[in-house]
Amino acid sequence: MGDPEQAKPEVVKVKRTNRLNEETLAGLYPHVKPGTLHFMPNENKQACVIACVFEDPDTGEVCGREREVRTSDLFQVDKCDVCTIKARRAKAKARRTAKKVEKVASMDDDEAITAEEDELYGHFNIDQEDEAVEPDEADLDG
């Protein structure tokens, strides 16, 4: 049997870290702004700043606003707070429109409404935008 000190290899303990570096983030998430990665000791998390990538459907311009995000949320966040709300509203509106179209398409001939009824009641007019009604001055004096 040999010397016991020779039999045991030297064990070096290395502290494992889950922290990401800038190069890794830039490769995975192109909307991360370079040089913004920082550690938040009070939350024990890393955070960085992203540039909003939401493209306005009306103008076609990219928003570009900045938002601070934890690196653990980067896989699901790519828009600023304002554009996130806009996107949710647009998605909900598209879902409601599709539901109305499906309902009208599934109606029998005797259930179907005429164009005059549709115009009169406006239940299934999916092309018309909701209009904000301003109160009259007479209503305010009331």
Any overview of this molecule?
- By secondary structure, this protein is of the alpha+beta class.
- It has two domains: 22-79, no CATH class; 83-131.
- It has five helices and three strands.
- It has helices at residues 4-7, 22-28, 81-105, 115-121, 137-141; strands at 38-40, 45-51, 66-70.
- It has a three-stranded antiparallel sheet with strand order 1-2-3, with no helix packed on it.
- The model has no long low-confidence stretch (mean pLDDT 78).
Keywords:
142 residues; alpha+beta; 2 domains; 5 helices; 3 strands; elongated
Question: Summarize this, please?
Answer:
The chain is 34% helix and 11% strand. It is α+β, with helices and mostly antiparallel strands.
Query: What would you call the quaternary organization?
Result: single chain
The number of helical elements comes to 5
The computed structural class is alpha+beta
Query: Low-confidence parts lasting 5 or more residues at pLDDT below 50?
Result: none
How do the strands line up in the largest sheet?
1-2-3
State Rg.
29 Å
Our estimate of the beta-strand percent is 5-15%
Instruction: Report helical residue fraction.
Output: 25-40%
Strand segment count: 3
